Amino acid sequence: MERTITTVKCQDFAKYCLSTLKPKPVEIKPPEPKPEPKEEIQGPERVIGTTNYKKWEEFKESEESEEKKQAEEYIKSMCSQDHRKEIELYERPTKEKLIACSQFKIQGNDAYKQKNYSLAALFYRKGLLQLDYTFPEDAKDEQTFKDLEISLHLNMCIAKYYLEEYDECLSHVAQVLKHSPGNPKALYRKALVLYKRDLLNESREITSKIVSENSKNQEAIELLMQIDKKLEDYKTKQKKVFKAMIDGEEVNK
């Protein structure tokens, strides 16, 4: 017996197919309200990108507190020291301090003549200390102050030269040249240090200048001769080394 499809069943099937093929209506949702802009956080709580400024502020605060702590400790240590000698020296009359400075210079010169360079440097240092607490009150004292300052620095640098403390020697030379540019004694002592350190070209340049300005400066003339001799020795050695290298290459061939 053949299967038959009734009209009702065909209608139901057609409705089902149509309902399946018919696109469903798109549900339109109402737009979401925009969030209110947040207030920008200022101060250490703010974060921009991946940078957390709170950590930076904490680090900065800890660094500042450490510096403050060190400063407080330094002030305490300074306050705990006995500064009566400095105060007493400061309060002494200017002329007394200048006289004391001259006396220390004389004592230093005596020790220098005996080739006791350490003792000489000690006396020169004491003389300079007097000047550190001296404030000239008139033109005459001002000139005496300047003369003593230059003289003590010059004496100190030659004492340090013989002690082979070349950095300190150059430091005192710089002090002299600051107050007296072109001072021949200071320049000569600088040239001596440069010569000892084998900075021959620099030493020769300074020494040549001294001799050109004063052809009777025997110390500078002798130093210039020593520099030229050493430069010539270096050239001779370089020639020998170069010749040995060339000969060695020819032998290997």
Automatic annotation (TrEMBL):
<feature type="region of interest" description="Disordered">
    <location>
        <begin position="25"/>
        <end position="47"/>
    </location>
</feature>
<dbReference type="InterPro" id="IPR011990">
    <property type="entry name" value="TPR-like_helical_dom_sf"/>
</dbReference>
<dbReference type="GO" id="GO:0005740">
    <property type="term" value="C:mitochondrial envelope"/>
</dbReference>
<dbReference type="GO" id="GO:0044183">
    <property type="term" value="F:protein folding chaperone"/>
</dbReference>
<dbReference type="GO" id="GO:0005829">
    <property type="term" value="C:cytosol"/>
</dbReference>
<dbReference type="GO" id="GO:0016020">
    <property type="term" value="C:membrane"/>
</dbReference>
<feature type="compositionally biased region" description="Basic and acidic residues">
    <location>
        <begin position="25"/>
        <end position="43"/>
    </location>
</feature>
<dbReference type="InterPro" id="IPR019734">
    <property type="entry name" value="TPR_rpt"/>
</dbReference>
<dbReference type="InterPro" id="IPR050754">
    <property type="entry name" value="FKBP4/5/8-like"/>
</dbReference>
<protein>
    <submittedName>
        <fullName>Uncharacterized protein</fullName>
    </submittedName>
</protein>
<dbReference type="GO" id="GO:0012505">
    <property type="term" value="C:endomembrane system"/>
</dbReference>
